[in-house]
């Protein structure tokens, strides 16, 4: 039987999806098992969470469906069949969803059928701050930051390589292929001036892109593995919301970019953005030395 902690860990590795209840848009994730379900919903302003075991489901089903008698597993299976299509971006025909929101609670009302009889259900989700959104997003930002630094360093290396070819006498066969040397500061400034306003104008409740979904699940799986190792070794969790206090010193991340997920959130700041950090720190930039100038000679000399 899967316990409450295992069910929550299973939820952690689920991707977020954009869903609509009535006229309201949210991002949500859910996990249904024989022992119950967990549901997590956010409108990017608040987070609501519910964990319901078989006892809760049995009691609530009797309150809402006085004419309907069925085993708890039947209710769980029906709820899973109602919610999963929504989380997968498919329509759930014949079902009615609505929501009622207060400062401390989100209630999702469901109207459907089970065995030919009306079936009603309410998801009661109190407001919550959980590890399912904030910490993974911090780690995703750090992983993407590291990836950006790697790409910027690669572009600088490519410019040095191209310059060496030119000094050796090589020439482009087509002038339209010529590119300007990569300038990191101007690139980032252009992003802030042009791209960032478009990103920030997007509406709330949007789901992650498919690429970010994969990154989120990689982050979540890594956190589950780390928690399991900590549990087996008897190590006490970090006091900073279970986020490791080890600082990133500029070396390669363990297991590559996707495995570098135990970085302290306190180490993150705008000053660590590429092009804005002049001294070594949590996100030390990779420096590329410019190749020495060579005398011009034939490309194959």
TrEMBL record:
GO molecular function: DNA end binding; DNA polymerase binding
Signal peptide annotation: none
Domain XLF-like coiled-coil region intervals: 126-173
Record field: compositional bias (Polar residues): 235-247
Similarity comment: family membership: Belongs to the XRCC4-XLF family. XLF subfamily.
Compartment annotation: Nucleus
Record GO biological process: B cell differentiation; double-strand break repair via nonhomologous end joining; immunoglobulin V(D)J recombination; response to ionizing radiation; T cell differentiation; telomere maintenance
Pfam families assigned to the protein according to its UniProt record, in alphabetical order: XLF, XLF_CC
This protein's name: Non-homologous end-joining factor 1
Start and end residues of each XLF-like N-terminal domain: 15-125
Main subcellular location: nucleus
GO CC annotations on file: DNA ligase IV complex; DNA-dependent protein kinase-DNA ligase 4 complex; fibrillar center; nucleoplasm; site of double-strand break
Chain segments carrying region Disordered: 226-247
Organism: Chelonoidis abingdonii
Coiled-coil stretches noted in the UniProt entry, renumbered to this chain: none
Top-level taxon of the source organism: Eukaryota
Keywords: DNA damage, DNA repair, DNA-binding, Nucleus
């Amino acid at each position: 039987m899967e316990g409450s902690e295992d069910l929550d860990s299973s939820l952690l590795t689920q991707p977020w999806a954009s869903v609509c209840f009535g006229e309201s848009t949210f991002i949500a994730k859910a996990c249904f098992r024989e022992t119950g379900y967990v549901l997590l919903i956010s409108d990017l302003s608040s987070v609501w969470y519910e964990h319901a075991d078989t006892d809760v489901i049995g009691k609530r089903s009797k309150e809402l469906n006085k004419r309907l008698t069925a085993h708890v597993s039947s209710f769980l299976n029906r709820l899973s069949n109602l919610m999963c299509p929504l989380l997968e971006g498919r329509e759930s025909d014949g079902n009615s969803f609505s929501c009622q929101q207060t400062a401390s609670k989100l209630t999702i009302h469901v109207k459907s059928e089970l065995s030919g009889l009306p079936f009603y259900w309410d998801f009661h989700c109190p407001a919550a701050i959980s590890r399912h959104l904030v910490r993974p997003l911090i780690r995703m930002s750090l992983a993407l930051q590291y990836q950006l630094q790697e790409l910027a360093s690669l572009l600088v290396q490519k410019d040095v390589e191209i310059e060496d070819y030119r000094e050796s006498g090589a020439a482009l066969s087509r002038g339209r292929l010529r590119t300007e040397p990569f300038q990191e500061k101007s690139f980032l400034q252009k992003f802030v001036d042009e791209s960032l306003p478009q990103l920030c104008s997007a509406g709330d409740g949007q789901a992650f892109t498919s690429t970010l979904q994969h990154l989120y699940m990689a982050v979540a799986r890594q956190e589950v593995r780390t928690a399991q190792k900590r549990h087996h070794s008897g190590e006490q969790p970090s006091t900073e919301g279970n986020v490791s206090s080890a600082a990133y010193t500029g070396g390669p991340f363990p297991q590559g970019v996707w495995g570098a997920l135990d970085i302290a959130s306190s180490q993150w700041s705008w000053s660590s953005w590429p092009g804005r950090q002049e001294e070594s720190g949590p996100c030390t930039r990779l420096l590329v030395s410019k190749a020495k100038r060579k005398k011009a000679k034939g490309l194959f000399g």
